[in-house]
Amino acid sequence: METLDSFLAHLGRTSERLSLCSTSEADHLAAELFYEYPLSYFARVLALPGIEASKLELIRRVLQQTLRTSAGKRLVLENIGIALVAVQSPEYQVRRLATEQLSAVLPQSCDEGIASALIEALADSDVGVATAAIQGLAEAARLSPEVLKLLACGPCAPKLLSMARPGSRAVERARAFALTAKLAATSPEAAAALESSDLIAPLVSELRQADDPLSCAAALEIADELISGACVPEAVRWVGRVFSPPLQELLGSEAAERAVPDLSGAQGLGEPRGPNCGVGPAC
């Protein structure tokens, strides 16, 4: 396909120039590129069946370079629909890129549709996509109180709550709670709001159900992952404050010991024990 080959050659030259130029020059190059090839053209190319991995990687790399510029961010805001379609792409590289770009514009847009799409990305089969969603939502909430409100008690809260409920896939629950811990670390007000929210209360309740070993064990596993992943001091303190009482109760519970023979992980509550909780990004 001659047109595609010409497009890819143009991208190759642009990528080389972008790697050498200043920020202002990169903004100019991005504007030039998108004037000649609108974002809708990129979307059509990415939707082509059987596109080679090397070509896909070139397109992804150039988009990553150009969409981080001022011109690129404006373009994403003007073409939210395209980005929302891309986050559903069968190609994980495209989903990851779309997740990163939607995260970048969320603090400015405070768009419910973007926040909702990023919450859905927590369930992605690719860990990189889910990681980008957790990081993006947490950073957007840190930068914008309106985004935090959307997630904690606004229109997007029920979707996050649904993912965190007992009965959801274990990895989805763990990611939802990993995001919750990061949100709580954004401010004392956020921590206080989340402690009493419908997100955390059910998990604490499950931890106290020593007479239901399976439910208790599942909740304990999530709590332990949060403890392991809480590397930011604010997150460490919040996780410790929320989970210390029920975990201390469990340490003396024979039913809990039968469900989970080794509860030693709970002993280190309040101290980070590793760089990553296994289901999301390091703090």
TrEMBL record:
Originating species: Tetraselmis sp. GSL018
Protein name: HEAT repeat domain-containing protein
Cross-referenced SUPFAM superfamilies: ARM repeat
GO cellular component: cytosol
A Gene Ontology BP annotation from the UniProt entry: proteasome assembly
Segments for region (Disordered): 264-283
